Structure prediction request, 325 residues.
Amino acid sequence: MLALVLILAVAQPDVSVNLAEREVVVTARGVTIPAGTHYGHHALETYLPFRWPVRCWARGYRLQMLDASGRELSRELLHHAGVANLDRRQLAYPAVERLIGIGRETRPVALPASMGVPMEPDQQLVFYYALVNPTPQPIEDVTLRLNIQIMPDRADGPTDVLPVFFDANPKPPSGTRSFDVPAGVSVTSAEFTLPVGGWLRAAGGHLHDHAVEIRLEDVASGKRLARLTTRREPDGRLIAVSSNRFVFRRRGLRLEAGRRYRVVAVYDNPTGETIADGAMAFIAGPFLPDDRKRWPAVDRLEAPFEADRAALLGEAPAAAHAQHH
Prediction:
């Protein structure tokens, strides 16, 4: 039986704009992390809806977790966090756009000055997170502070890019995107197509403990297009996932509309036992589409999208959505 961990938090975050520092700050205060919750547990996400405050481009982000005295807490307490944009759809899947994704291994992210994600005032977003605490004492009055770097609206702004997300184990929002990790080396993969071609300007990834690598491949040719590797402790604990900025490709990695691509995740589990629901694996990055008008529009009648949107707004059972981060 899955261990579900309820993380308690305030009803909505504080949102402020600091034009001098060129950032939007999203803050959740008064968070309690219950004792005895571990990374291997499947923590229920907390969802905090908010409205985007300003026309701009989003260009980077960093997350801080602070204790009641304002001191930074260990990254080990983070299972995952992110921001979903309910007013845009993902390119490859009928689901809500994941504007920001943060794992335990994620460090501050920044796009080059030449590109940014366009944002409009009053877009409906959700700040979501799940925390863990293996100690015997609850951690009270935690603050999560998400600083989103922006470029204010201006005529000579950067090139518009939009976030994309390619999953080695895609599932509908009502299901789970995690998967078992058998003993030894195992491979999990899934294919996708895109409705509009374009350029993947950079690629990062999210993996769990015992991950070796994640790859993006062309199905027809079998060619490897991108490969992200991990750094791990001797026991398999994940330290970091590499990224790829495609520095030898002037515009990035070319992806064609209608062509089949494959995401491949490799894990190596030395424990001798299957780790149930112990893995996730996806590649994400900024994408420059050939024609933004062909980007799939939000369709509230599209059942998978609507199920994802409803869960992010607390209108669906959270347990069914707990692992769709």
Remarks:
- Residues 22 and 172 are 36 Å apart (CA to CA).
- The chain has two domains: 4-159+298-321, 161-291.
- Helices lie at 303-312, 318-321.
